[in-house]
Every structure is written in structure tokens, then in C-alpha cells.
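quick one, 85 residues, struct below
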Amino acid sequence: MSGAEQRQVNFLNDSGTCDQFGARRGSPAYSDCMLAQQRRRDDKRLRSLEEARTASELARNGQIMAERARRDRCRRNPDRKECGR
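---
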């Protein structure tokens, strides 16, 4: 779906939600409702991005810790298969 198509879908969904809340199109309540729907969507996207960033950081930290543990094992016993000798 293109960006323009997604914006149209978002608009229709938001508009339908605001209509269900009883906000009349063109009224301040409708405008407030539409802005609230956009904020809700933005907040959800930010949470999703933050969760992805956290997962990536955890994975990177796990790799670093695993490599440190491997180096420690190889320092103690260089004949281990994982030490490449």
C-alpha cells in the first residue's frame, strides 16, 4: 500500500471513529477527535520503534557478552574447538 493510500485509509478510519463518537464534521469536537486519532497512531508507531530499538540493543549486548565469554574460555583453554586452533 502506498503512503497516499495508507493516509486515505487512516483518514477514513479516523473519520468513522469520530462519527461514532458523535462529533459533527467541521466542529471543534470533530477536529479534536481527528487530532486525538492521529496522536494515538503516532504514539503506537513510536512505541513500536522503541520496542524494536530495545530488542536490537538487547541482541547486540547478548552478542558482545557471548563473544567475551568465548574469549575467556579460549584464554583459559586455547585447545577448545571454538578457539580455532
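DSSP finds two helices and no strands in the chain.
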